Amino acid sequence: MDPVEEVVGEDFGDARLPAQNWQRRHYTKCTFRDADLSELRTESVIFTDCDFTGADLAESHHVGTAFRSCSFTRTTLWHSEFRNCSFLGSEFDHCRLRPMVFDECDFTLASLGGADLRGLDFTDCRFREANLVRTDLSRAVLRSADLLGARTGGVKLDGADLRGALVDANLWTAASLDKTQIELTQAIAYATANGLVVEPT
């Protein structure tokens, strides 16, 4: 197996690196501001404290890659795919995010407040203690997703599929839930959180 390539503190700002193929690399405190990373392919790459402000990651594909405490501001991510990836503690602000694919990704402690995630599929994804305040998840698929501890004030889940998702009681009172799909046990939790008494007939 090839050794891991370590890259620390490098400035890739404005770099033109389209259609690259990166494997087994560790980038720490690197900046990719306004870089062209379109069609980038990564596998088992780790980005720690990296800045992707204004970067173009459109049509990129990532497998087993981790973005730890990274900054995505005005980043273009549409038509990209992330499979078994981690975004631990990363921040997303005014990014272009749709359409895209997330397969079993981890957003623990990530900040997605106000993001437009309408209609995306987050089946089996993890959002533990993530910031989802005012995030638009209308019509999103969140089946078996883990949202425990997430901040959900003002989150829009209208028409979303929450069946099998793990959520805190405050989500049932803090979120917009028009025509949201839920299971019977979740319906009971919703009723209880809203002060209703559920009794057998």
Automatic annotation (TrEMBL):
InterPro entries documented for this protein: 5peptide_repeat, Pentapeptide-BTB/POZ_domain
Pfam families (alphabetical): Pentapeptide, Pentapeptide_4
Domain of life: Bacteria
PANTHER family per the UniProt record, alphabetical: BTB_POZ DOMAIN-CONTAINING PROTEIN KCTD9
Protein name listed in UniProt: Uncharacterized protein YjbI, contains pentapeptide repeats
Lineage: Bacteria, Bacillati, Actinomycetota, Actinomycetes, Mycobacteriales
